[in-house]
Amino acid sequence: MHQQKDDYIPALGYDRLTPLYDSLIRLTMPERAFKHRLIEQARIMKSHRILDLGCGTATLTLLIKETHPEAAVVGMDGDPKILNIAERKAREAGLNISFDRGMSFDLPYPDTSFDRVLTSLVIHHLTHENKVRTLNEVHRVLRDGGELHVADFGKPHNALMLAASLPWRIFDGFEATADNAKGLLPEMMRRAGFIEVHESARYMTLFGTLSLHVARKP
Ligand SMILES: C[S@@+](CC[C@H](N)C(=O)[O-])C[C@H]1O[C@@H](n2cnc3c(N)ncnc32)[C@H](O)[C@@H]1O
């Protein structure tokens, strides 16, 4: 499934598979563990405004709002169909979350409008050029001292994870996944202007190593 320059790839590559997304992720990844860890490391405060970039079905977005009810939480995604699922889940949970449609590389928000940007399993979907544009956009919408927290596939950290990453790389394309698989995301974040970039946690999944990263806007 290859991305066009100004488009997005649906969560599982094809629209008709989107309703299966939540079940598949729950079965194949330590989803709650890594999403809770991402939220914990973001040290969210009551006054914060948080963006979940590429929120998909909003599992992370809901967790953020449940754990930090006084923070203002926004979920954004390029796919209007998955946003319908996200909005329904938030409504059913009785959570006040704003959802916007937008593209990660052209964010529909003013400069310095968020304290934290969290993003999970999105960056690997983007072409190299769109990863660069997206990181620049995240830097722009974060306030000074704001932080980016990323959960996504990283460089395989053992032979088992190298083997496990192959089906994912075939499915999403070797070119699009190369930056993640070669461990280049931290350097790309630094080039976008972030500092104190580091990997904060690693998980083994059926699709290979999942890495968490932190980056701060000076
Ligand atoms: C694999 S899903 C991850 C969803 C969710 N963040 C999670 O962790 O479960 C990737 C999501 O990124 C969205 N997406 C992909 N490219 C995008 C882009 N350029 N701008 C905005 N959303 C994008 C897709 O629509 C999809 O909902």
Can you describe this structure in just a few lines?
The protein has 218 residues and is α/β, with parallel strands linked by helices. The protein is built from eight helices and seven strands; from the N terminus they run H-H-E-H-E-H-E-E-H-E-H-H-H-E-E. The chain has a seven-stranded mixed sheet.
Break the fold down into its secondary structure elements and pairings.
Elements: H1 21-28, H2 31-41, E1 49-53, H3 59-67, E2 72-77, H4 80-93, E3 98-101, E4 114-120, H5 128-141, E5 142-153, H6 159-172, H7 174-181, H8 185-191, E6 195-205, E7 208-216
Parallel strand pairs: 1-2, 1-4, 2-3, 4-5
Antiparallel strand pairs: 5-7, 6-7
Helix pairs in contact: 6-7
The chain binds S-adenosylmethionine.
What does this structure look like?
This protein is of the alpha/beta class. It has a single domain (15-216), classed as Vaccinia Virus protein VP39 (Rossmann fold, 3-Layer(aba) Sandwich), CATH 3.40.50. It is built from 8 helices and 7 strands, in the order ααβαβαββαβαααββ. Helix 4 (80-93) links the parallel strand 2 and strand 3. The protein starts with 20 loop residues before the first helix and ends with a strand. The model has no long low-confidence stretch (mean pLDDT 92). Residues 8-11, 25, 54-56, 59-60, 77-79, 82, 103-105, 120-122, 125-126, 130 line the site of S-adenosylmethionine.
Key terms:
218 residues; alpha/beta; Rossmann fold; 8 helices; 7 strands; 39% helix; binds S-adenosylmethionine
